[in-house]
């Protein structure tokens, strides 16, 4: 396995990502936690030093442990990682006013000799290959003098030591970021590096599953674990993995707040009981939630009411489970990164997101987070590995507050019923047209107004619906989906014919920003 020592770069997770794509197992450890002893115990086959925001010239700035250089394993240093390597091994780094800061696109040209590390680079169609490679730079300081034993193998106008290596020791150090999209050929460097380090690229999701099961057993021992199940992919995969690891030491709690989609509660509960035989409490608390929400129309009050009730209810059920010591959460890698780099920032609250953060401390529970090192698509792959049906794995995200935020204005049971039926028809249309997997998220919302229509020979005065569908990578920004007019016409007709109480359908063609994905 490979160890990535994280010096705090915003893109460290992308290094892990590139390595996973090469089927190499790696772990990211923050530099503060890597000591000579822990490094020897980890016994890496290769090490990568990530980038980072600090300056090696600053007293007390991050360093790898000395042992890293003495293990005799290949090392790749990136940006700050390069500077730290040069500094530690006898080179010189310049900071402050002497430094040429460089941000953005740059072009690297090769030197005469080309080590194996650069196989596939600088190819321009000729056998020798002297083409330039586009790279992404982002540094304030720069290396002024390379360490003894190192040679330069590539330069850019702002970085005379863009690519350096000590071939005898298998140490490689680059000033740019090969892991990002803007270094189009960057993956090749990672591939060359792991091949030089002797990795065969045979790590699989199956192997990860086994490893996680072992880790969960070690962490949990004989204790009992509670897992909140939402029916989403992350919490489902977490539950199934835990169940494989510890069987009946796991109890799942599925809180039904009465704001779920058509047949959703039954489907989720059935899937878990039938296929996995997991201990599952189906907490039907819809009367409580809908009761408290009566007359509430302000979006933030809705969100806060639901969030608070959710915690109360979860706590009530969880406290009935004897000897519970752990709470399992489906936290993903991007959540970990975001919460580290953005916590405490000055950003405004657009919406109070529904989450159960703070719950473990309140209840005196420890956390188990088996998905902490995975990206969303890797969670899906693990779900597949664990036998979750494909239809379940590919489901669109669904927000914690559920249909409440798709029902602007007051929430009533009548409106919810109309909304559920209309949403089901809409999603059925999308599936029938083979569009479901192209869309990040699609749903109907019921608008707080009635409009006049004519059906048959009669007047109608019914609700209007908004249909929403967006494409997105992470939900942070989104584009509305460009359905054809035929599709929209057909869907509108079907909804109005099949769902009593609706006589008008709008399509929401707002992107995010300026809109948000949900209506509230
Ligand atoms: P917005 O509406 O903020 O939504 O553009 C972005 C993504 O987040 C989902 N969402 C939530 N998910 N709890 C969640 O778990 C929430 O309170 C919540 N609010 C919005 C939304 O469905 C979209 O995928």
Derived structural class = alpha/beta
CATH overall fold name of the largest domain: Rossmann fold
Can you tell me the residue ranges where pLDDT is under 50 for at least 5 consecutive residues?
A: 339-347
Alpha carbon gap, first and last residue? 45 Å
Query: Overall pLDDT, averaged?
Result: 91
- Give the bound compounds: xanthosine-5'-monophosphate
Count up the domains.
3
Class of the largest domain in CATH? Alpha Beta
Strand tally is 20
Multimer state:
single chain
Question: Helicity, in percent?
Answer: 25-40%
* Helical run tally: 16
Q: Which percent range describes the beta-strand content?
A: 15-25%
Arrangement of strands in the largest sheet: 2-1-3-4-11-10-9-6-7
GO cellular component, one term: cytosol
Catalytic activity: XMP + L-glutamine + ATP + H2O = GMP + L-glutamate + AMP + diphosphate + 2 H(+)
Pathway: Purine metabolism; GMP biosynthesis; GMP from XMP (L-Gln route): step 1/1
EC number: 6.3.5.2
Account of the 3D structure:
With 520 residues, this protein is α/β, with parallel strands linked by helices. It folds into 3 domains: 195 residues, Class I glutamine amidotransferase (GATase) domain (Rossmann fold); 189 residues, Rossmann fold; 96 residues, 2-Layer Sandwich (GMP Synthetase, Chain A, domain 3), CATH 3.30.300.10. It is 34% helix and 24% strand. The chain has 16 helices and 20 strands. A 9-stranded mixed sheet has the order 2-1-3-4-11-10-9-6-7, sandwiched between helices. It has a 5-stranded parallel sheet with strand order 14-13-12-15-16, with helices on both faces. Strands 17, 18, 19 and 20 form a 4-stranded mixed sheet that branches. Strand 17 and strand 18 form a beta hairpin. Helix 6 packs across helix 13 and helix 7 crosses helix 13. The longest helix is centred in the middle third of the chain and has 21 residues. The radius of gyration is 27 Å and the shape is globular. About 2% of the residues have low confidence. This is GMP synthase [glutamine-hydrolyzing]. Catalyzes the synthesis of GMP from XMP. GO terms for molecular function: ATP binding; GMP synthase activity.
């Amino acid at each position: 396995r490979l160890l990535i020592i994280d010096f705090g770069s915003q893109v460290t997770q992308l290094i892990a990502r590139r390595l996973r794509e090469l089927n190499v197992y790696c772990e990211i450890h923050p530099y503060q936690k890597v000591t000579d002893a822990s490094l020897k115990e980890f016994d890496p086959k290769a090490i990568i030093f990530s980038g980072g925001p600090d300056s090696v010239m600053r007293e007390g700035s991050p360093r790898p442990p000395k042992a890293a250089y003495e293990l005799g394993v290949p090392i790749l240093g990136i940006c700050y990682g390069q500077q730290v390597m040069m500094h530690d091994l006898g080179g010189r780094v310049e900071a402050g006013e002497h430094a040429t800061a460089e941000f953005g696109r740059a072009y690297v040209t090769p030197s005469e000799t080309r080590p194996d590390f650069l196989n596939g680079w600088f190819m321009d169609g000729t056998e020798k290959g002297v083409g330039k490679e586009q790279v992404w730079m982002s540094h304030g300081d720069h290396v002024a003098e390379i360490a003894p034993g190192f040679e330069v193998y590539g330069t850019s106008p702002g970085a005379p030591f863009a690519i350096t290596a000590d071939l005898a020791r298998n140490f490689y150090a680059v000033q740019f970021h090969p892991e990002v999209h803007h270094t189009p050929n960057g993956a090749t460097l990672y591939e060359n590096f792991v091949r030089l380090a002797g990795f065969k690229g045979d790590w699989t999701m199956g192997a990860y599953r086994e490893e996680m099961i072992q880790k969960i057993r070690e962490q949990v021992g004989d204790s009992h674990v509670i897992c909140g199940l939402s029916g989403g992919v992350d919490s489902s995969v977490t539950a199934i993995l835990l169940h494989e690891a510890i069987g009946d030491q796991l109890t799942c709690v599925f809180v039904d707040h009465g704001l779920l989609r058509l047949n959703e509660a039954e489907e989720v509960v059935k899937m878990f009981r039938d296929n996995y035989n997991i201990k599952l409490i189906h907490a039907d608390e819809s009367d409580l939630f809908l009761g408290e929400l009566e007359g509430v129309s302000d979006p933030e009050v809705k969100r806060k009411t639901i969030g608070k009730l959710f915690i109360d209810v979860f706590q009530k059920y969880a406290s009935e489970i004897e000897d519970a010591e752990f709470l399992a959460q489906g936290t993903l890698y991007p959540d970990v990164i975001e919460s580290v780099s953005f916590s405490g920032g000055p950003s405004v609250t657009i919406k109070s997101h529904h989450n159960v953060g703070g719950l473990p401390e309140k209840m005196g529970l420890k956390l188990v987070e088996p998905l902490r090192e995975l990206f969303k698509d890797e969670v899906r792959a693990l779900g597949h590995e664990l036998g979750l049906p494909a239809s379940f794995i590919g489901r669109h995200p669904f927000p914690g507050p559920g249909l409440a935020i798709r029902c602007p204005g007051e929430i009533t049971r009548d409106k919810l019923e109309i909304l559920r039926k209309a949403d089901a028809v809409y999603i059925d249309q999308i599936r029938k047209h083979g569009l479901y997997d192209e869309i990040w998220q699609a749903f109907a919302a019921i608008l707080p107004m009635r409009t006049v229509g004519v059906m048959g020979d009669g007047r109608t005065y019914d609700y209007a619906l908004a249909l929403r569908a967006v494409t997105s990578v992470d939900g942070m920004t989104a584009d509305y989906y460009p359905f054809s007019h035929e599709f929209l016409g057909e869907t509108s007709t079907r909804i109005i014919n099949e769902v009593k109480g609706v006589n008008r359908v709008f399509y929401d063609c707002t992107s995010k920003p300026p809109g948000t994905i949900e209506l509230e």
